[in-house]
Design brief:
It is built from five helices and two strands; from the N terminus they run H-H-E-H-H-H-E. The chain is mainly α and 135 residues long.
Amino acid sequence: MALLRLVLNIIWLFVAGFWLAIGYVIAGIICCVLIVTIPFGVASFRMAGYAFWPFGRDLVRRRGAGGGSTALNVIWVIVAGWWLTIGHITTALGLAVTIIGLPMAWASLKMIPIALAPFGNEVVSSGRPREPWQF
């Protein structure tokens, strides 16, 4: 299973991961221009790592995430989340053309929740046990 994840991650890196990660890094750099938006930049850099190497990792809700993370997520969607989501959808459509690209298209679609709501979520290793309330 680990070998399959490695192979999928390497293929992903060449067909989509590099460019999606670059998109997140650009968004992070833009967000770090102002002191007020530095938390958005840090979240964007964290998401770039997930976009770069997604197989073998999952998105889970962070314990204790409340109203503050919801407010930050609303601002994030307006500032950068919508165009990163469009990038994931476009990438998924392009990858779904071939049978080999289907797992990678699914990985791109799997990243949409974190592209829309990076605050209050975290990326964890797939082997980590999750509680029932987490997605």
